[in-house]
Design brief:
Aminopeptidase; seven-stranded mixed beta sheet; 28% helix; single chain; 31% strand; 7 strands; 155 residues; alpha+beta
Length: 155
């Protein structure tokens, strides 16, 4: 069976195991700051989820949350550890970008931790530009914020 990409929502039970693994990994990266970050990543605040599956199992996911009239915020990016370096996160991120643009938004924002070197490299390689930390991350030294603008937004 090939790789499938589904657009779904946060109520899709297939993402729950991936999110649990993500939270475990992030708690190691974030240490005693994990509770601070966790409050901004609750599934009930997320409207749109991209799920990548293969061999009838979820492999990678990412989500979108409305940020403002022009922007969606990328959240909950995760790929199983044994499936990394295969381009799956890139495919999920590109699908999130496509969805954002199709809905008429002209920008994606995201925050990641400074210790997450692979994530930072992924975002930079896909054209995300580092910006001043926004919203709740403004004065958080561990946070790195990025944006990517789209010329073809419909809004």
């Amino acid at each position: 069976m090939g790789i499938l990409i589904d657009r779904t929502n946060a109520e899709d039970s297939r993402i729950l195991d991936l999110v649990r693994l993500l939270d475990t990994e992030l708690s190691e990266y974030d240490g005693d700051q994990h509770a601070f970050y966790d409050q901004f990543n609750q599934l009930h605040t997320i409207q749109y989820v991209v799920l990548l599956s293969g061999d009838d199992r979820p492999i990678s996911c990412g989500a979108l949350r409305l940020y403002d009239d022009f922007s969606m915020e990328i959240k909950r990016m995760y790929t199983l550890q044994d499936e990394r370096r295969k381009g799956y996160a890139k495919r999920v991120l590109q699908e999130l970008e496509n969805w954002t643009s199709e809905m008429g938004y002209t920008r994606c924002l995201l925050e990641t931790g400074s210790k997450q070197k692979e994530a930072v490299a992924l975002y930079q390689n896909l054209g995300y530009k580092q910006i001043a930390n926004y919203g709740p991350y403004k004065n958080v030294s561990n946070s790195i914020c990025f944006e990517k603008k789209f010329l073809n937004g419909l809004r």
